[in-house]
């Protein structure tokens, strides 16, 4: 089976490929000749996943899936949420986003947060959504060099290390994206 993953984020593509069985071949946006930036104008994580999947299906005619993810911090009423990648503004910059988040949490005791991923699958004319959530907390000092985004400051419940201290394989197994991808795999009956 061949599916387009509506992403050019090489980190995400690597993470997803680690989780999928060999019987599913992933094509990136680059592989299908999609070089334009797909608009992410929805106000929810679910909405952006749907926008991206629909864009590829409608414009290129492929069965595909797209994801959108965000970090939701309890004390900040769910921020940065759908704006996680651009929390500190344009251009996207992980370090600036982390700095802004740490500054916004300064003096706040409740550091509970969760990562949320929604995958939208467009397959043979039908659309399905799969959600993965991992709870944890934000720490104030960056730890680890693996991963991307907010990984250096997020510690999942039940773990001592940040996502950036885990190997890619460890993170992929327990992460919000890993949970959503497992639901996708279960749906596809693998």
Mean pLDDT: 94
CATH topology: Maf protein
β-strand percent reads 15-25%
Please list the strands of the largest sheet in the order they lie side by side. Answer: 2-1-3-4-5-6
> What is the C-level CATH assignment?
Alpha Beta
Spans of at least 5 consecutive residues with low confidence: none
Apparent shape: globular
Instruction: Please give the largest β-sheet.
Output: 6 strands, mixed
List the helices and strands in order: EHEHEHEEEHH
Keywords: Hydrolase, Magnesium, Metal-binding, Nucleotide metabolism, Nucleotide-binding
Family: Belongs to the HAM1 NTPase family.
Catalytic activity: XTP + H2O = XMP + diphosphate + H(+); ITP + H2O = IMP + diphosphate + H(+); dITP + H2O = dIMP + diphosphate + H(+)
EC number: 3.6.1.66
Structural key phrases:
RdgB/HAM1, Maf protein, dITP/XTP_pyrophosphatase, six-stranded mixed sheet, 24% strand, hydrolase, 6 strands, nucleotide metabolism, globular, 190 residues, alpha/beta, 5 helices, magnesium
Describe the fold and architecture.
This protein is of the alpha/beta class and 190 residues long. The chain has one domain (2-187): Maf protein (Alpha-Beta Complex). Helix content is 29%, strand content 24%. The protein has 5 helices and 6 strands, in the order E-H-E-H-E-H-E-E-E-H-H. A 6-stranded mixed sheet has the order 2-1-3-4-5-6. A hairpin with a 2-residue loop joins strand 4 (112-123) and strand 5. Helix 1 (10-19) packs across helix 4 (168-174) and helix 4 (168-174) crosses helix 5. The longest helix has 16 residues, at 45-60. The protein starts with a strand and ends with a helix. The relative contact order is 0.16. The mean pLDDT is 94. Its cofactor is Mg(2+). Homodimer. Its EC number is 3.6.1.66. The active site is at 68 (proton acceptor). Mg(2+) binds at residue 68.
